[in-house]
Amino acid sequence: MNQTLRFEIIKDLAAAQKIWESLSPHETIYDDWDFRNTFHAYHKKELFFIVGYQDTEAAGLLALQYNNDQNYFEFWGGSYMEDNRVMVKPGYENLIPEFYNFGGTLGKPLRLEYIRGNDAYTTSLPFQDYKFVLPLKNFSDTNDYLDAVFSGESKKKLVKRLKKIDDLGVTIEEDNWADLELLINWNIAAFSDSAFIDRPFHKEIFRDLLKPHATFQARLLTFNIGGKKQAVTMGLVYNKTYASVNRGIDPEADKNVREYIHVKKVADALKLGGELFDAFVGDYGWKERWGCQKIPQHSFITSSTERV
């Protein structure tokens, strides 16, 4: 097969969507056009979709945007995105380096982060961080989950802590969209200046993610504990994956509420037929301990405009 590629840059949104949909593997929420476009609709960064053609056939796509605030190219959708990749048709995987190579000729630095290592080249790129996922196929309920992850004295203590919350009286309300505002306020209170949801446009973006979408389902769980709302969690269900997007917890809530709501989110994922629970990037001291598998994420960062 002749694999010499001709590169073009697409900046038109409608044309970009057509190429995206033809090449996306539709594996994770980050492969979904509607999800990323919800971020793009607010930030409105200039598109630089690098398309590699063989003759007239689109063989691959490196979807970038120009961050004019920071003066570099980044993956389309911005810094919230994980599992980024060059999307290629089968048989073109060995040409993935050429897409990064061409990106190096655009005249500005590349800051491409959280790249999913699906091929020999991207797995050789510098390691950035781990993302964490919990396979659910072997669990019929959360008892199976806890049995698989914990044992002995540690499990006894965990069950006791979870029962302590149950004994306070718990009801879980599903999809009360107005409670997203509680999540936002509590999240900002907990993380202050580092709260991701407090960045420009992110409140509006998360509100829009709750709206009906053809390709994914939003999920909001409100935890009424002891007769009072004390936690709200947000998830997105896509292709049998339950993405645990964010949470907010009343600062006055019992410290054990954090692990309690995690168990209930896993229960919700199982109820909805989920086969994978996506806990996103960063361990934060608990994800691997709670049975999540870690998947390397890589980066490709240049400061020069020379071919790399």
TrEMBL record:
Transmembrane segments: none annotated. SUPFAM superfamilies: Acyl-CoA N-acyltransferases (Nat) (SSF55729). InterPro entries: Acyl_CoA_acyltransferase, BioF2-like_GNAT_dom. Residues 157-288 form the BioF2-like acetyltransferase domain. It comes from the Bacteria. This is BioF2-like acetyltransferase domain-containing protein. It comes from Candidatus Magasanikbacteria bacterium RIFCSPHIGHO2_02_FULL_45_10.
